[in-house]
Design goal:
heterodimer; A: about 120 residues; alpha+beta; Sufe protein. Chain: A; 3-stranded antiparallel β-sheet; about 45% helix; about 20% strand; B: about 400 residues; alpha/beta; Aspartate Aminotransferase, domain 1; Aspartate Aminotransferase, domain 2; 2 domains; 7-stranded mixed β-sheet; 4-stranded antiparallel β-sheet; 14 helices; about 40% helix; globular
Amino acid sequence: MYRENILDHFKNPRNFGNLENADATQKEVNTLCGDEVEVQIKVNGDAINDIRFNGRGCAISQAAASILTEFVKGKNFDEIKRLERNDILEMLGIEISPVRLKCALLALYALKNALRKVENA
Amino acid sequence: MRQEARTINAQEIKKDFPLLQRKFYDKQLVYLDSASTTQKPSVVIESLKEFYEKYNANVHRGIYKLSEEATQLYESAREKIAKFVGARPEELIFAKSCTEAINLLAYSLELKEGDEILISEMEHHSNFVPWQQIAKEKKAKLRFVKVDEEGKLDLESLKAQLNEKTKIVSITHVSNVLGTINPIKEIADIVHKNSSAVFIVDAAQSVGHMKINVKDLDADFLAFSGHKMLGPVGIGCLYGKAELLQKMKPFLYGGDMIKEVTFEKTEFNDLPWKFEAGTQPIAEAIALAKAIEYLEQIEMDTVEEHDRILTQYALEKLRELGAKIYGPNERAPVISFNLEGIHSHDIATILDGEAIAVRGGHHCCMPLMSVLGISGAARVSFYIYNTKEDVDALIEGIKKVKKVFE
C-alpha cells in the first residue's frame, strides 16, 4: 500500500493550501480515523478552473486528495460526477483493504459535495 | 507478595491457544490487541462444544434430567464467577456484555430532574454514552472528573464535584487507552464519604488481569465482560450489592425474570434472575467459568506480574524509538502511542503486513482523545500468551514503519 508515489504525494502534497475567492469549500471528516480533507474549488462554467485542499490524517487519505486534485483540474462537472471508487483506486495504483477504503475516498466525497454546492447556489 | 509470584512461561501458554498458531502473509501472528478481545484457550472452546453436544437444554424450566444438568452447570458457573470477584451468587447477574450491564444500571437506577451523574474524562464510550443519554432523558446533569497531565484521575476534581445532588458515580478501573489503574478503593471511600451516590466500577479491562474483590473495593456495582478474560463473546457480568439490586426495577421484561404472571400484574423473580429476562447465554456462562479456572491455575498475582514485566519492557523499547506515549509509567498492559508525523492507521496497516495485530484510532474514547489533543493513537495490549519476542517483533515492525515514512 505504501508505494513510492503514495508516500511522495503524502510528503509533498500537490495543490495544498487555500484558494482566494473559492466558489465552494467543503470539509469532510472521517470520524473513525480522524482524517480531515477540505476541498476548495474555483469554477469556470461547468469545469474546475482551480482546486486546493487542506487536511490532515493518514497517508492514504492525504495522498488520495493530492492525486485527485491533480486529476480534476480542468475537467468538467459531468466527468467528475462519474468518478467512483475504482477510478480512485486506479489513480492511486495500489490495493486497499476494505477498512481503509473510506480514507481513499474522503477527498472525492468532499469534491462531489463541493460541486453540489456550486450547482445549488 | 511480588517477589514470590511465579513467572509465566508464555511460550508454553501460547500452545493452549489454537488461533495464535495462525500465520498471515506467511508470518506467525503476533497478537497485541487483547484489550479489544482476548484469544481463547482450547479448554474454553471445548467447553462450548461440549455443552451443545451433551447438555443443551433451557435452564430453570425443564423437569427432565437434561434440563436439570444444564441448570446445574449454569448455576455452578455463576457461583464460580461470583467467587472469583468475591461476590455471592445472587449478586452476580449475567448480561450479554459489559456494555449491557452498564446500560442495565443506567435504565434501572432511579434518577430525577436535577440529579447529578459523575463519570470521568477517560471513560470508554460504553461507560459514557449510556449516562449521557439517560441524563438527557431524565434532565439530570452529567459531570466529568478531570484527567491530569500524567493520565491519572484528578482526585481533587472528584472530591470537588461530589455533592448532595450526586446520585451515580461511574468510573473505569483501568483505562483502555492510558493503561491507568485507578485507585478504586480510595475513590469508593471519597464517593461514599462525600455523597449518597452509588459507586459503579467499569472493570472490563481489569478483572482478567488482577485479583479483584468487590467487597474490598467497596464498589456498589462492578461490570465486566467475559471475552476480555479468555471467555467467549456474548457473556458479561454485573455485580451489585443485594440490598441495592433488590430496590431496583428490572431492566428487561420477559421469561425467567418472573415469579407469577396474572392478567392484571406480574410478580418479579428473586435475585439474580429478576434481571435476566429471556434465555441467557448458557454455554457462554459455563465457558467463562472454564476461562476462570484456567486463569486460577496460573494465579492472578502471576498474571499481573507477567503483564507488568512485559509492559515495562515494551515501554522502554518504545521510548528508545522516540514514540510519544500516553499515560502513566505504572500501568496495566495497555500502551497507546504515536510516532511523529505518522497516522495511527498507517502504523497499524504496516504492522499488519508483518502479521502484527495492533489497534489504531480513537479506541471508543473520543472525549479522552480531545482531552489529549489527538485524533487517535496506535495501541498495543498484552496478555498471558504474549512473550518478550512478541514485543521484539513489534519493535522491529515499528522500525519498518519509521523507515517507510523517512
